[in-house]
Specification:
By secondary structure, this protein is of the alpha+beta class. The protein is built from 13 helices and 11 strands. The chain has helices at about 15-30, 40-50, 55-65, 75-80, 130-140, 185-200, 220-230, 235-250, 295-310, 315-330, 345-360, 365-380, 385-400, and strands at about 95, 105-110, 110-120, 150, 160, 165-170, 175, 265, 275-280, 285, 290-295. A hairpin with a 4-residue loop joins strand 9 (about 275-280) and strand 10 (about 285). Helix 7 (about 220-230) packs antiparallel against helix 8 (about 235-250) and helix 9 crosses helix 11.
Length: about 400
């Protein structure tokens, strides 16, 4: 669970994509408030990108136009040759700033368009062949995703130039989704989750990201450090300490962990940002690089927090019930229910928040520091609460009993 992290504009942002994101978001807002207008969705989307309003967001889009980086043509040709992609027909351009895996690029050849990315900072939870086997099994079960491409030697990851690379087929789709997501799409997401869980591919452990706290310091100590260093968000962190500590207790020994259920190999990071509406209207799932093990109830709890809690803490109950209904329609039943189903979600949230705080305090580049400070302020202002998780559990229990 990444929490309500600030969205990142692509390197060459498209205003039409933002308008589509706002329309998709409007459908989710209207599940809870039928009177919601497009202006409300635009304002919410701008806030999720870390801007005060739609006008400010549009101005940033204008500022970033044409800022995509262009790769060395020789590198593009080497990648195309290594993966047998055909003859390069245009520049290889960056898609977005580097993330925790690497940087994404777009490459066009006479055989089509390809999603290319570096994997220099990628720390996989399972080996790449296990991850690809999950994708292949998911495709066989009807899940739509951009298929991974093997090189001429049969490898998924290749060292080319100064970087490690991997390639996927380009899937024509719309922009990433934003919470709260409409009930129509959350129902489909529930069906996808149940389908992947139903594959029951074995895995030897639960993802450490969902079971271990990596930061040695507590929230209060982190707030003191931020204050001492003059971080612009230090006061916001101090105000959020009680909420973060309350969320920590959800994963504590007093909460039923439901961890007696064996983990299955799953996507492991299936938030709205890793989903797209494909050209045919279906939900496409991207971002399989973090595949790992979770008990089905944990990943279901994680999906509920990402897809049905809006950035201001409200719960889209229609979306939550649709997600659960879609899951049950495929699986026949819901996995074990209890507050423990959110244990993995709150642990991964704690790891993400701590990591963002550290990045913001240590950033050297002015542009990166500006982004990180904006991201942290947004994240701390939009944390989920125990009350929201309890409401989601009530919905799940009610549907299960119905």
């Amino acid at each position: 669970m990444r929490g309500a992290s600030v969205k990142t504009l692509p390197d060459n942002p498209n205003l039409d994509h933002l308008r589509q994101q706002a329309k998709d978001l409007l459908a989710g807002l209207r599940d809870s408030d039928p009177s919601a207008a497009l202006a409300d969705a635009q304002a919410s989307l701008a806030e999720q990108y870390g801007f005060a309003g739609w006008t400010e967001l549009k101005a940033e889009v204008d500022r970033q136009q044409g800022r995509a980086d262009v790769a060395d043509p020789a590198l593009a040709r080497d990648i195309a040759a290594r993966y047998d992609l055909g003859q390069v027909t245009g520049s290889m351009r960056s898609v977005a700033r580097a993330d925790e895996i690497g940087r994404r690029w777009s490459l066009e050849t006479d055989r089509g368009r390809w999603a290319v990315r570096t994997t220099d900072t990628w720390i996989p939870i399972v080996d790449v062949e296990t991850e690809v086997a999950l994708q292949e099994a998911a495709v066989g079960a009807g899940v739509l995703l951009p298929a991974p491409v093997r090189s001429g030697s049969g490898a998924i990851v290749e060292s080319i130039g100064d970087h490690s690379w991997r390639v996927n087929r380009w899937l024509r789709s719309g922009p990433p989704l934003s919470a709260p997501v409409s009930a129509t799409l959350t129902r489909e997401l529930g069906r996808i989750l149940a389908t992947v869980h139903g594959l029951a591919l074995p895995v030897d452990r639960i993802s450490p990201w969902h079971t271990m706290r990596f930061a040695a310091r507590g929230w209060a100590e982190m707030a003191e450090t931020a204050g001492a260093k003059g971080a612009p968000w230090a006061a916001a962190l101090a105000d959020a300490v009680s909420t973060l500590e309350d969320l920590d207790s959800v994963a504590g020994p007093a909460a039923p962990g439901l961890s007696d259920a064996p983990p299955v190999l799953c996507h492991n990071s299936l938030g709205p940002n890793n989903a797209r509406r494909a050209a045919d209207g279906r939900l496409a799932v991207v971002g399989w690089e973090h595949a790992g093990g979770q008990p089905p109830s944990w990943e279901l709890g994680d999906a509920l927090t990402h897809w049905t809690i809006n950035p201001n803490g409200g719960v889209n109950t229609a979306g939550a019930r649709a997600l659960l209904d879609g899951y049950r329609a495929v699986a026949g039943t819901l996995p074990p229910l209890g507050m423990g189903m959110f244990a993995g979600a709150v642990t991964s949230l704690a790891n993400y928040v701590a990591g963002q705080l550290d990045h913001a305090l240590t950033a050297r580049d002015e542009e990166i520091r500006r982004y990180q400070d904006r991201s942290v302020r947004h994240l701390l202002a939009h944390l989920p609460t125990r009350a929201a998780l309890e409401r989601l559990l009530d919905e799940a229990v009610s549907l299960s009993a119905g």
